[in-house]
Design goal:
Length: 325
Amino acid sequence: MTTARPFMPRAKARAIARTNQISTTRIMLSALMALVFGFIALTVGTAHARADDVTPNPGLWKLTDEDSEIWLFGTVHILNPNLTWRNEAINNAFLHADIFYSEAPVVEADEKVMKPLIAKYGVNQTGTSFLTRLSAQGSVDLNTTIKNLGLPETIKQQFAVYRPWLAGVTLGALQVQSRGGDPEAGVDKILWREAKVIGKDLRYFETMEEQISLFGGMTMADELAFFESGLRQMIEDPDLLDEVTEDWRAGRVEALGEKLNGAMVGQAGLKTLLLDDRNKKWAKDIKKLMDGAGTAFIAVGAGHLAGEGSLQEQLADLGLVAVRQ
């Protein structure tokens, strides 16, 4: 476990809150790529995972047949721009692929696209704020989290109009960014932009609306559980971000899977919705690719490639073997 780092200075956090009004649309633009698991902290990196203590070796797998070559690469959606993660194997696989796949076209999304989606799926339509439905512990944890992030308590007035899932993802993104994470340094965005410049065929598994509607389709009970468990996680284990990032960067897939599965204990419904069902669908899409011909590089959140129900397991059920490189 890495040494805990102090939260962002209060003055800086308040300045961000005033300037961006929590930057809901901007934060969601990056945070909604983090639908890998039941909470954003499990899919993003942080600033102070040490840059010199690990030789980069993120998980990379290969599927082949007589006329197809497909690479599976686990990514991190928000990362320290100074943290190295590339190696020769990743570079070669990426450069030689004709097709680049990501989860969704997040680089192509803008406020014109996102604002109506947030209004449709993330704004409370019931007239009663979810804050009134929090448990006693959840209310205490919310106050603690706001204080830890150096945000004014009045920020709750903004959250009052959100649905719980939107408030939870927003707070998670703020925590990551307060510790130095940069959405523009996300591996998915970097590779998408490079693939576009090179002229690769750009594809994705889900539209932005399909991703956001996953959260939008949650029950209130699941949303509240998502929100409160996320608060507790930020309070009890703020270094989880560092640990997950370092496991990812070092290629410790089993350790990564254990952390992700452990964090979802008691939230089986969310795991099914946000991970298992999507992996099953993506596996079918990949099989269609394999039934054709060509070379593809597929970059999805590392959580999809670790733990029980992983994308590799779903592919195995379809008769396809992904070999770790």
